[in-house]
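Box S1 | Example of a co-folding query
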Amino acid sequence: MAAPILPGSTLGILGGGQLGRMFCTAARNMGYQLNVLDPDPDSPAGHIADDHVEAAYTDMAALDYMVRSCDVITTEFENVPAGSMRYLARGKPVYPSAEVLEIAQNRNREKAFARKAGLKPAASHPVVHESDLEQAIRITGLPAILKTATLGYDGKGQYVVESLQQAQQAFRDSGAVECVLEKKIELKQEISTIVARNRQGDTAVYPVGENEHRNGILHITIVPARVDEAIAAMARQQALQLVEELDYVGVLAVEFFIDSNNELLFNEMAPRPHNSGHYTEDACVTSQFEQQARVICGLPPGDVTLLSPVVMVNLLGDLWRPDWPVLLNEPDVKLHLYGKKEARPGRKMGHYNVLGSDVEQVLKKARAIYSRLAEA
Ligand code: ATP
Ligand code: MG
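Box S1 (continued) | Returned holo structure for adenosine-5'-triphosphate
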């Protein structure tokens, strides 16, 4: 087994958004050098990396430079071209692997894989041709949600449909690209968990977070999740099954639905740290970003113990510029900003974590602060 990659070495990352930025911050604290590849000259991670390569993810010279200058390479977003990761892997260790990214990049492949690993996605059927819709509806029933198979995020590329005609229209609106039709679940709750695995196969699973979305975008994560211990344990166990089955190395987020019958359903996975894991930055012994650095370097996963109940709230561009003192005057509120200059509706600009001894109190406080920000 190769020796661990130690501080002083250079970690490369494809993608320079906020997840890359928080990864760079955590890894730099540990003494690593950071190289970021991202075409955007104004990328949040590029601002703080030792080296920011401003080039396309398919630029061969840039990829060759990453191979030469980095000791290990990771990514912060699932839609990085798998071919680029495969190319990099010929020269240096790359985690997660191109094969895993290819599964996570396509909702149909992802659901099939999750089923194979023993998880239970909502009833669904691939839609490649418009003529697949009738059979798909027989499987999912109505209402259903048509989702594009690739490139969806924050609820984009999703259509709720109540009839075959609406489904046909939605399929045409999608550009008739590969889709999946999914049963529309009556959601009782949504939860997620983050799991990490190194190349030796050591794993660590974070406590389960309870997620609230607004307009298809994560709004709040509550930890500990207010769910039966048996359901939380099952979610963590299933996340472990997934990383074992994938032979995964890195940090993986797994999103679940809990339906009105209290059944745990697999929603999707993200082969990287996740917005719903930002609570770990202030409330766990090891943040998800430090964890990413540790496991890609072949170190044992850090302790994932929750030190305090916590609620994370996203700050989107809709609500900009916030009344900063509302956040900064609170001693138990931790503000995180991503250094993005341009605020657009729906764009993730930052988040805050509220800590305290009682999760209901913390949630109340987090919501009260949000209302004050929204009013200002
Ligand atoms: P992200 O990557 O930001 O999590 P995404 O675009 O990949 O988002 P999903 O996780 O598929 O989207 O869906 C976003 C949200 O839409 C879910 O968290 C859930 O609230 C709702 N949703 C999605 N699929 C279903 C479904 N089958 N039944 C009920 N609600 C759903
Ligand atoms: Mg999602």
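The mean pLDDT is 97. Residues 255, 267-268 surround magnesium ion (ligand 2) (CB under 6 Å).
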